[in-house]
């Protein structure tokens, strides 16, 4: 480890010890602000300047060789100081400078570079994720990416099945520009429980958000089906990230809705 890095860390530890000793100081005082800024390393002397001053006083050629070797050894660790104290006759390349910075960062956090590259890759993907019209192919792709199993019927309808309910995902409207997620519980409400069923739907709609609940038309047996529905207009288009977020959230809240029904009504 370079000696100036060691001195920097020693200085940081000393600053922390001093700050702990001044526990009675006011919050936001001079000591706290200094600690927040962090300690800075002492200025590293210019090895070439040392060489010119000391070589004149040296009587042996061996001392000059040792000083030159030390100058070459320190040259790789003085990048920051060289920038502050002025240009040298021989500056290190930008590539070498980046490798020094990278090495310092990896000493602090071994995963820093990997995380940085991942963030850059995700940012690049977001820049290319432009809004585009909604269609069945994009819905299917979103379901696959979310690992949601689905079926496509003979009419092109897309449905996802769960143990207690089914969710239909489709584009509706004259221009197919409305994203619709429609959940239906397998269990129905008996006709004699209709009043209780309507009260439960009102309670859900009053206290919850994002999913509209309602009772459908009576079936052949007279029972009332229970639906939960989300409708979102996307005429300007929709990004893939937003489409996946809406489907993910819609299917999750549908499961919560059916679970709530079992304790409240069914």
What do you see in this structure?
By secondary structure, this protein is α+β, with helices and mostly antiparallel strands. The protein has two domains: 3-126, no CATH class; 136-264, 2-Layer Sandwich (Yope Regulator, Chain: A), CATH 3.30.1460.70. The chain contains ten helices and six strands. The chain has helices at 3-21, 30-37, 47-57, 61-75, 79-85, 94-108, 112-128, 136-145, 194-207, 240-264, and strands at residues 151-152, 158-161, 165-172, 178-189, 212-215, 224-233. Helix 3 runs antiparallel to helix 4 and helix 8 (136-145) crosses helix 10 (240-264). The protein is elongated, with a radius of gyration of 34 Å.
List the helices and strands and how they pair.
Elements: H1 3-21, H2 30-37, H3 47-57, H4 61-75, H5 79-85, H6 94-108, H7 112-128, H8 136-145, E1 151-152, E2 158-161, E3 165-172, E4 178-189, H9 194-207, E5 212-215, E6 224-233, H10 240-264
Antiparallel strand pairs: 1-2, 2-3, 3-4, 4-6, 5-6
Helix pairs in contact: 3-4, 8-10
Shape: elongated
List the domain count as a whole number: 2
- Cα-atom radius of gyration: 34 Å
Q: Might you state the CATH topology name of the largest domain?
A: Yope Regulator, Chain: A
Which consecutive residue ranges, at least 5 long each, have pLDDT under 50?
1-5, 19-55, 72-85
Give the SSE order as H and E letters: HHHHHHHHEEEEHEEH
Keywords:
10 helices, Yope Regulator, Chain: A, alpha+beta, 266 residues, 6 strands
């Amino acid at each position: 480890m370079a000696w100036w890095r060691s001195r920097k860390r020693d200085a940081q530890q000393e600053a922390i010890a001093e700050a702990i000793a001044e526990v009675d100081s006011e919050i936001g005082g001079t000591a706290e602000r200094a600690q927040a800024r962090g300690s800075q390393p002492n200025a590293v002397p210019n090895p070439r300047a040392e060489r010119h001053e000391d070589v004149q006083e040296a009587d042996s050629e061996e001392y000059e060789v040792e000083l030159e070797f030390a100058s070459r050894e320190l040259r790789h660790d003085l990048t920051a100081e060289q920038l502050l104290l002025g240009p040298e006759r021989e500056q290190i390349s930008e590539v070498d400078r980046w490798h020094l910075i990278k090495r310092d960062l990896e000493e602090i956090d071994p995963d820093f570079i990997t995380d940085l590259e991942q963030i850059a890759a995700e940012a690049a993907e977001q820049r290319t994720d432009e809004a585009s019209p909604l269609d069945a192919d994009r819905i299917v792709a979103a379901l696959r990416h979310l690992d949601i199993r689905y079926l496509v019927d003979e009419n092109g309808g897309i449905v996802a099945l769960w143990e207690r309910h089914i969710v239909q995902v489709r584009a509706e409207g004259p221009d197919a520009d409305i994203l619709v997620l429609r959940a239906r519980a397998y269990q129905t409400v008996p006709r004699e429980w209709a009043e209780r069923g309507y009260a439960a739907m009102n309670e859900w709609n009053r206290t919850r958000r994002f999913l509209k609940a309602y009772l459908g038309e009576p079936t052949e047996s007279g029972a009332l089906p229970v639906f939960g529905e989300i409708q979102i207009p996307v005429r300007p288009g929709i990004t893939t990230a937003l489409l996946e977020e809406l489907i993910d959230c819609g299917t999750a809240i549908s499961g919560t809705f059916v679970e709530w029904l079992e304790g409240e009504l069914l």
